[in-house]
Amino acid sequence: MIEFYLDVGSGVSPYQQVVRQVRHALRLGLLREGDQLPTVKDVVAALAINPNTVLKAYRELEHEGLVAARPGVGTFVTRTLTDATLAAHGPLRADLRRWLARARRAGLDDESIEALFMTTFRTAAVEDIA
């Protein structure tokens, strides 16, 4: 089962963080069809957030057709986002792990690594469009 976490410094709303974490888990195959999401009560207890925040996230996922709520039972995954070619990306993942290790050896903390990656990612995306 997925365990949610919140990054209070991210600038992303808590409900959106929950939605993104479910999408990532679906994309990576960590959640599969039929898997149950944590109950609203469990998420509220773990993250100390308002139940309406969790309900909003689960409703958005349901609207996208990724989960379905079963009253009195829970919320279950109805569709995954797993890319069939994801398993073939093992070499890319290994390269990325090596890059992360080099970045840490160069003295970058997690926030600096993320900033470097995201600015490079965005720049490359803009250059690819042009």
Automatic annotation (TrEMBL):
Keywords: DNA-binding, Transcription, Transcription regulation. It comes from the Bacteria. One of its GO terms (molecular function) is DNA-binding transcription factor activity. Pfam families: GntR (PF00392). PROSITE patterns: HTH_GNTR. Residues 12-80 form the HTH gntR-type domain. Signal peptide: none annotated. Transmembrane segments: none annotated. InterPro entries: Tscrpt_reg_HTH_GntR, WH-like_DNA-bd_sf, WH_DNA-bd_sf. This is GntR family transcriptional regulator.
